[in-house]
Design goal:
Amino acid/polyamine transporter I, disordered C terminus, globular, 21 helices, single chain, mainly alpha, about 525 residues, disordered N terminus
Length: about 525
């Protein structure tokens, strides 16, 4: 892996025919923080720990390094792309360079929908933590009613999304300042929490090799429940592409974005893995049913180990992590909507692609994303398993959108057409000879994980009554509906109007060179 010289400083936006309309003010730490906050160690590890533990017991923790290795392969491919094309809506724009217009649009569409669903599911994590800090946060009911948990979660999440909308609409400088402070708190808290839990270890690592009867009634035995529990780890380590999606607002993006992507996923693996390990080894009683329940989980374990004041102090840090994760997911969704609207590739594109003349941020897109993100919460408001359902759907869509980048990238490598011919851009990061094996592993991993996550198992999609076939197949049906709706929208309507909107088109650059076997990049005059 190599990093070329200083000549790679240019942003590469001219390759897409775009003018600079966003505020380029993000530095190295803020770029790294964007990736870390989307992954959000404390949010992800604490949000679905209970699910992974309930499925496979302590040994579910082995899914953490497995998911990391798979996602690292994807992150390395993305780092190479970010070293050439650090632009808003990165997955969408990368697919434009690598594939056809239809598949590029579908990649952006799937990631946009997944980010909106993920925004709601991340904000829901407040329900897992706030009532354990103070019972007064259980505003609806006392938490014992069949729908108290979900209803209160939707209320807290909606308030959080409203706050995130205001911050993101105000401008990227405010968002990144809050995000950077929050990430610093999260990283420090993760280190201190690991040390505190390590001080209270009561058992050896041998517990990680014990299946403890899990999977006894499953057709595939322990492996069957392990791959279900792996969703808890799969939910954490994605979204690292956010560092590149903010590339148009980042200084020296071709070198900054690739490093931020790789550092974000690596730091998240190390710190998150240590929290999982020390938490399992320090738990007073691993047979306590509260550890495997949504209203207990890792939060309950921490409180049991560290006691009230210290435990609640760390839970406050988790709340901070949820807040900055919500901000980052919202910011990524905004950039994707903006990127697609800038190409006139969404309904009402001229409004969604507007950049505030003073704040230099897509304000309309920020507000629209915030409003739409509340819809899945309301639809699932009476569903006790709301966390796992929304989390599963958002991850499936993320993995599918990533595959729409890694698959065409692999196809080009095999055809000896990567780097792209006549590209005219110098890379800030390159995998060199390791590119092909890394790309192959990224595709295999993405396909396997997508299949695992979309598999219509009642443990994920219909874990509580009523038990209906359409609920169990809800993930497949939703993903199929989103993909089919998107393709029809694009093929029947949007592809005929595609072209960079006048306010975003570069006026002083030569037309971009051909970057795809099937089409040229979007320019003011190009129509698919």
């Amino acid at each position: 892996m190599t990093e070329p010289s200083k000549s790679a400083d240019s942003s590469g936006m001219d390759q897409f025919g775009y003018a600079q309309t966003l505020d380029r003010s993000i530095g190295k730490f803020a770029s790294f923080a964007a990736g870390v906050s989307y992954i959000s160690i404390l949010t992800g590890v604490f949000q679905l720990f209970y699910f992974g533990f309930a499925m496979a017991g302590p040994a579910y923790a082995w899914s953490w390094p497995i998911v990391f290795v798979g996602q690292l392969m994807v992150a390395l491919c993305f780092a190479e792309l970010a070293g050439r094309y650090p632009v808003a809506g990165s997955v969408y724009n990368w697919a434009k360079r690598l594939s056809s217009g239809t598949f590029a649009w579908l990649a952006g569409w799937l990631l946009l929908i997944s980010s909106i669903v993920a925004l709601g599911s991340v904000a829901l994590a407040l329900q897992l933590t706030l009532p354990q800090i103070w019972s007064g946060f259980q505003i609806i009911g006392d938490g014992t009613g069949p729908e108290d948990f979900a209803l209160n979660g939707v209320l807290l999440a909606s308030i959080m999304i409203g706050i995130s909308t205001l911050i993101n609409a105000f401008g990227v400088k405010l968002m990144t300042k809050i995000n950077s402070v929050g990430v610093f708190v999260e990283l420090v808290a993760a280190v201190l929490l690991t040390l505190a839990l390590a001080w209270h270890i009561v058992r050896g690592p041998g517990v990680l090799f014990e299946t403890k009867g899990f999977g006894a009634g499953h057709p595939l035995g322990f492996f069957g429940v392990f791959i279900i529990g792996a969703m808890a780890s799969g939910y954490v380590m994605y979204g690292f592409d956010t560092a590149s999606s903010l590339g148009e607002e980042t200084k020296d993006p071709k070198r900054t974005a690739p490093k931020a992507i790789l550092r974000a996923v690596t730091a998240s693996f190390v710190l998150g893995g240590l929290i999982l390990l020390t938490g399992l080894l320090s738990a007073p009683n691993l047979n306590d049913p509260k550890i495997a329940s949504a209203d207990g989980g890792l939060q309950y374990l921490v409180l049991s180990v560290l006691g009230g004041p210290f435990g609640k102090a760390f839970l406050l840090c988790i709340v901070v992590a949820v807040v900055v994760c919500t901000l980052a997911v919202h910011a990524a969704a905004i950039r994707m909507m903006f990127a697609m609207a800038r190409d006139n590739n969404l309904p009402f594109s001229r409004h969604l692609g507007k950049v505030h003349p003073v704040r230099k941020t897509p304000t309309v897109a920020a507000v629209v994303i915030g409003i739409i993100a509340v819809v899945p919460l309301i639809v699932n408001v009476s569903q006790p398993a709301i966390f796992t359902i929304l989390s599963s759907i958002s991850i499936v869509l993320i993995y599918l959108s990533y595959l729409l980048v890694t698959v065409p990238m692999l196809r080009r490598r095999l055809a000896k057409k990567w780097p792209l011919p006549n590209d005219g851009t110098e890379a800030g990061f390159s995998l060199g000879k390791w590119g092909l094996p890394v790309n192959i592993l990224a595709v295999l991993w993405g396909a396997a994980m997508t299949l695992n996550l979309i598999w219509p198992r009642p443990e994920i999609y219909n874990s509580v009554p009523p038990f209906e076939w359409y609920l169990q197949w809800g993930g497949v049906l939703f993903v199929a509906a989103v993909a089919l709706t998107g393709v029809l929208m694009y093929r029947l309507k949007l592809r005929h109007q595609t072209g960079v909107l006048a306010g975003h088109a570069a006026t002083s650059t030569a037309p971009p060179q051909r970057a795809s076997l099937e089409r040229e990049p979007v320019t003011p005059s190009s129509v698919r």
